[in-house]
Amino acid sequence: MEIAVLADVHANLPALEAVLEDIGDLDVFCCGDLVGYNPFPNETVELFRRQGILGIMGNHDYAVVSGDSSRLNAPAKKVVEWTAKELSADNLKFLSSLPKSYEDERFSAFHGSPCDPLFDYIFQNTSDEILTSFIGKSSILILGHTHLPFTREIKGKLVLNPGSVGQPRDHNSRAAYAVLDLEKQSAVIRRVKYDVDSVAREIRRQGLPLEFAERLYSGD
Questions:
Q1: Taking the chain, what is the end-to-end CA distance rounded to the nearest angstrom?
Q2: Residues whose CB is less than 8 angstroms from the CB of residue 150 and which lie 6 or more positions away in sequence, other chains included
Q3: pLDDT tens digits, residue range 192-214?
């Protein structure tokens, strides 16, 4: 059985639409951060609601719904404040309803890590000892937050970060997601082109920090 795994969509609607088209009929799971950085928060959340996409909360989602952006830098705070004003009541309610973690017999998921579900950064070079301590009853652990895709197999278990749909940071401007084979416990990272210009234009039109438009082109 295969599912598609997303993370860090960050209100980038054109990237999300391109990824969902590429995914086709697979079920989808999102490992947090529907909003932040980019200028389409309502459209992004509404698409998640409309398609019934299962997911968890990320640190930018939390900042928007809680009003606590103290752990974000100044440009990211500006977008969080703008997003909180832009979101409809229904979309804000949906964002607030997202859990901070997920676990079933197939996999467990955290935006950060089990130690700090919202804010912990776990990278590909994180030690086997630490990653093993994070893997609970499920044999697959899904993480987000870093915007850097990776897969690691440790003692017959899989750790996966699908990268970022909406703001890649691995020097590749294409949206990233993963196709996860739950039976084989293996994953493939996929990349999808989308209309970056349209997102950059809207960032400028809304008066959001220009650096978030520029980094979409460089993927860093």
A1: 33
A2: 123, 124, 159, 160, 161
A3: 999 999 999 999 999 999 999 99
Contacts with 1 (C-beta within 8 Å, 6 or more apart), sequence order: 181, 182, 183
Which domains are present in the chain? Answer: 2-218 (3.60.21.10)
Helices (H) and strands (E) in the chain, counts: 8, 10
Residues with Cβ within 8 Å of residue 85, at least 6 apart in sequence: none
Q: How many CB atoms lie within 10 A of CB 46?
A: 16
Residue 21's H or E segment, with its range, is helix 13-23
Can you tell me the distance from the alpha carbon of 4 to that of 24, in angstroms, rounded to the nearest whole number?
A: 9
The predicted model scores a pTM of 0.96
Q: Is 216 exposed, middle or buried (0-12, 13-18, 19+ CB in 10 A)?
A: buried
* Tokens matching residue 177: 């997601």
